[in-house]
TrEMBL record:
Signal peptide (from-to): none
Keyword set includes Nucleotidyltransferase: no
Protein's name in the database: Putative tRNA (cytidine(32)/guanosine(34)-2'-O)-methyltransferase
Molecular function terms, GO-annotated: tRNA (guanosine(34)-2'-O)-methyltransferase activity
Entry's localization field: Cytoplasm
One Gene Ontology term, aspect cellular component: cytoplasm
Catalysis performed (reactions): cytidine(32)/guanosine(34) in tRNA + 2 S-adenosyl-L-methionine = 2'-O-methylcytidine(32)/2'-O-methylguanosine(34) in tRNA + 2 S-adenosyl-L-homocysteine + 2 H(+)
General function of this protein: Methylates the 2'-O-ribose of nucleotides at positions 32 and 34 of the tRNA anticodon loop of substrate tRNAs.
Domain (Ribosomal RNA methyltransferase FtsJ): residue spans on this chain: 21-254
Lineage: Eukaryota, Fungi, Dikarya, Ascomycota, Pezizomycotina
EC number(s) reported in the record: 2.1.1.205
Enzyme class: transferase
Length: 377
């Protein structure tokens, strides 16, 4: 398959190269930000499973360079559109439009701290601390705490960060095998590891955003997250293919229950439930409710029902598609613009797990996807 054909089949792959993003995943975070205003008042962020680094690039452009991307770009576009509609004249159709106020100016923020972690080495990004570590390994937490606060003493048993963070992101994904149950299981282990790290470093009021694969028991996870976060929403950005089970869980307003202390000696997910570490599981029955947001979108909470003795409470998290309706559909092929020149990726993977296989194949003369007859490769 040629580069142009991939550009055509995947508009976000093409746009990522044109806009200088290391991966098309950047658009997922930008579209989540459009919806949830993730970076409002944020200066300290942990980016888990960060390689090749497009989410870290988003953080860098928003927090360090003060660029107008994500929510800020969306607000800017909306403001200009309102002005344009108003300039068309004050017909009855436009009279009830709200008086547009200019969106806040995007500018570099002070005292920004961003720590990115991945199993794979990541090419450096200015102003971002990159750690090569396994987020499921207990030795990673002291590394992270030290990176957040150089005065942290790793010999102490305390896992509480002296400088907590505002936002923890995790885009972790295992190398998918195609065996869905296995992939979902491994993904859920990454999610639990990310959550345990988040619980150790998030400040009250903080936000946790993580990739999930929607398996059959995912509603139990939502119920557990609801114990420590006020808002738990599942969201699917337009740049995430509809055919993929991938979605993102956006947990807002971290509110650890009284007496709660995150501990990696007894991490969550290994037989321990959030309800047992100091919090109460969500109330047994929440009636369904509707709410109309300022932007006119109606949010529906389905409520929850107790099951059995009430211990196995499931809870349906609200589901929200995000990303501008005018944004590209990730599942459709798009006509390439006139005079299109296919660009090389901004940052090819530095040490992908398939590197050795590619090298072996090349040695046997089967590079670039062509297979030498008789080698069986
Ligand atoms: C979809 S990619 C992340 C893309 C990234 N957010 C970006 O925007 O460039 C998933 C990443 O998860 C990482 N990963 C998988 N398991 C991990 C683990 N146990 N610890 C750390 N990183 C892990 C992989 O190495 C891979 O780079």
């Amino acid at each position: 398959m040629g580069k142009s054909s991939k550009d055509k089949r995947d508009a976000y792959y093409r746009l990522a190269k044109e806009q200088g993003w290391r991966a098309r995943s950047a658009f997922k975070l930008l579209q989540l930000d459009e919806e949830f205003d993730l970076f409002k008042d944020v200066t300290r962020v942990v980016d888990l499973c960060a390689a090749p680094g497009s989410w870290s690039q988003v953080l860098s452009r928003v927090l360090i360079q003060g660029q107008t991307v994500g929510r800020a770009a969306w607000e800017d576009k909306r403001y200009k559109e309102l002005l344009r509609l108003r300039s068309l004249g004050s017909t009855a159709e436009h009279e009830d439009l709200p008086e547009p106020g200019p969106p806040p100016e995007a500018k570099p923020r002070k005292d920004v701290k961003i720590v990115a972690i991945d199993l794979q080495p990541m090419s450096p990004l200015e102003g971002i601390t990159c750690l090569k570590a396994d987020i499921t390994h207990p030795s990673t937490i002291p590394l992270l705490l030290k990176a957040l606060d150089p005065s942290y003493d790793p010999t102490t048993t305390s896992t509480e960060a002296s400088h907590p963070v505002d936002l923890v992101l995790s885009d972790g994904a295992p190398d998918v095998t195609g065996l869905h149950d296995l992939d979902i299981y491994v993904q859920s282990q990454l999610l639990w590891a990310a959550l345990n790290l988040a619980l150790c470093v998030l400040k009250p009021g903080g936000t946790f955003v993580a990739k999930i694969f929607r398996g059959k028991d995912v509603d139990l996870l939502y119920a557990q997250l609801k114990v420590v976060f006020e808002g738990v929403t599942v969201s699917k950005p337009r740049s995430s293919r509809a055919s993929s089970v991938e979605a993102f869980i956006v947990c807002t307003n971290f509110r650890p229950p009284g007496g709660f202390r995150a501990s990696l000696d007894h991490p969550l997910g290994a037989g321990r439930r959030l309800g047992e570490v100091g919090g109460e599981a969500p109330v047994a029955r929440t009636p369904p409710s509707r709410r109309t947001r300022e932007d006119g979108i109606m949010e529906l909470e389905l409520g929850s029902e107790p099951e059995g003795d009430g211990r196995e409470i499931r809870w349906v998290a609200p589901f929200l598609a995000c990303g501008d309706l005018g944004a590209f559909d990730a599942d459709a092929s798009h006509k390439l613009p006139e005079g299109h020149v296919s660009l090389d990726p901004v940052q090819p993977p530095t040490a992908p797990p398939y590197k050795m296989a590619l090298e072996e194949r090349k040695k046997l003369g089967g590079a670039y996807g062509k297979t030498k007859i008789g080698t069986g490769i």
